[in-house]
């Protein structure tokens, strides 16, 4: 079925949402819900279809072109298609790298637009925001060096007339700039405050991947980002309200991040002891899977 569905997608244009959205979803699940052997073949089929990749390029570009004056409360068909497009491309980046699959057509993405979508949000639906962050995680994990992707960034434009004070750091973090990093971190913190069940796990995962990327590129910058005092206020905010327990997946994953990068000004020995005490008193077998997994990672890191 992959061959006819890929060919069908390649004959469409992004406005054919009723046909394209379920088709892209089918391709997405064909990659994820299969055996490793079949998965490798599926990736090869998708990446060998030039018309499909050209269609995906157009879908990604529509993210910045489609700007309805007021988005409906529910997900529109256009937004649903964009979500499917970003998730499929993120998956293709992941599996192309894993299997070193031959690429017949590259995709081009403006990094500044992707970062601005997260930093400024501009009333984008939560599911679309999550999908874009999934893509951002994929490119960060590959150090922006995927053979499937061409990164275009405004930071790459020469500007000799306007020397930047942090040019050395920007060079180390290329294609990211220091200002973009700090803006992105602040925006991720602000998004976490919403305590949205769909958004929070994606935001924490994006923050984890960002700090890992920074640590490889420039350890001082990564440690500086991980020890920002605002993180402590964020933890207090997440622990306020109805759920005061440390045994929340997002809180545990943030704590793990701060322990990993030795941010002692954010998480103290007292709080580590509190988490261990709560875990000792909890019925581990009854914890949700996400909480159990996050607790395992935290204890392993400690």
TrEMBL record:
**Where does this protein have coiled-coil stretches?**
none
**Its domain of life?**
Eukaryota
Entry protein name: MEI1 protein
Which GO terms of type biological process are on file? meiosis I
Where exactly are the transmembrane stretches of this chain? none
Q: What is the lineage of its organism?
A: Eukaryota, Metazoa, Chordata, Craniata, Vertebrata
